[in-house]
Amino acid sequence: MTARPAESARPVTPVAIAADLVRSAVARLDGADPDVLADLARAGRLLAGLDEYVGRCTTPASSALEALEERTRSEPWGSGLEQEMLSGHAEGAFLAMLVAITGARDVLEIGMFTGYSALAMAEAMPAGSRLVACEVDERAAAIAREALGAAPAGTLVDVRVAPALDTLRDLGAAGDRFDLVFVDADKAGYAGYLDALVDLGLLAPGAVVAVDNTLMQGEPWASATPTANGAAIAAFNARLAADPRWEQVLLPLRDGVTLARRAG
Ligand SMILES: C[S@@+](CC[C@H](N)C(=O)[O-])C[C@H]1O[C@@H](n2cnc3c(N)ncnc32)[C@H](O)[C@@H]1O
């Protein structure tokens, strides 16, 4: 697993945010009851060590994925994109496992960024299968193309640079169907992407849809003043949970991944 430079990434998962808050609270509790301090310190250790432990117990990333993570972290982002968007080791391994156990041969990614999750999934796909990756940002797509071009599995990835809904319409018009879809683009667009997948006939029978960031840094349940992304995810989660045409489970991996499929 690639060691994440401690100074380079701000906490973006509920657990990492909670670990930071506890660490900061303990540092300010000089003179407090030692039992309270000991309990807080233990809570801090539980939270701060979880992601590292999950990574240690997960199959290591390939050298191509490690190089891509380093490349992404070294880019001076800005203009709405940031290194923290990259899903990373544990989630990449999870998606690769999902590809393997579903036997998916046609995979769609909505929100590719620099290609980490696309490459992680492609590495688990057999020759002759394909992954269509949607990305709207040319700069992120250029880094992805470079990394995919250097990795054998990269030949399976078909990068489409355009607003994802446009690409979905093109794919629907071409009669394409997907066994697995990973949704990881603009959070306000999530509900529309799910509708488009159904309305455009893009889901093969039994298709699985994995949706990223459905915990959105804990905002849906722990923030009185959620950001636009927090509010969008809270609304998306509530809508999906209330829709009997879908069945789903929200897994607390990293910033939350919901697995959904059409019911019945
Ligand atoms: C969280 S990042 C994706 C991370 C990536 N899946 C990974 O694991 O490394 C979200 C990406 O979605 C892209 N995006 C946002 N809105 C989009 C849209 N309407 N169509 C296509 N891509 C979009 C952003 O440019 C960004 O690169």
Description:
The chain is of the alpha/beta class and 264 residues long. The protein has 2 domains: 14-56, no CATH class; 63-262, Vaccinia Virus protein VP39 (Rossmann fold, 3-Layer(aba) Sandwich). It has 10 helices and 7 strands. Strands 3-2-1-4-5-7-6 form a 7-stranded mixed sheet, with helices on both faces. A hairpin with a 5-residue loop joins β6 and β7 (257-262). α1 packs antiparallel against α2 (34-56) and α7 runs parallel beside α8 (190-199). The termini are far apart. The relative contact order is 0.11. Residues 1-7 have low confidence and may be disordered. The structure holds S-adenosylmethionine (SAM). Residues 81, 85-87, 111-113, 116-117, 134-137, 140, 163-164, 184-186, 189 line the site of S-adenosylmethionine (SAM).
Can I get a quick summary?
The chain is an alpha/beta fold and 264 residues long. It is built from 10 helices and 7 strands.
How many alpha or pi helices?
10
Average of pLDDT: 95
Beta-strand residue percentage? 15-25%
Bound molecules: S-adenosylmethionine
Extended strand count: 7
Structural class: alpha/beta
Order of helices and strands: HHHHEHEHEHEHEHHEE
- Name the helicity range: 40-55%
CATH top level of the largest domain is Alpha Beta
